[in-house]
Amino acid sequence: MSDRERADAVLEHVAVLAFLYYPGIEADDPSYSLADDIDWCLARLGDVSDTERERIGALFARAITDPTATREELFTALVELDGLLAVDHHE
Question: N or C: which end of the chain has fewer CB within 10 A?
């Protein structure tokens, strides 16, 4: 799987979970676990450092629970992680 395909697969996983998530899901479905959803997405990343896993995992959590506010940051992080694009943070 190419870096681009991997990033796309991760984004697809997050998008599906964000679509299914709603505030109060834990009360409606006691078996629901945001941590399990994050782990499901992290599994698509492959071999990354623990630091990157923690950082990207936190982005997954935010992207699942508030996708509009986080999608650009998550996309940029995945692009940087996979080296698909050199992103200049000096705006």
Answer: C
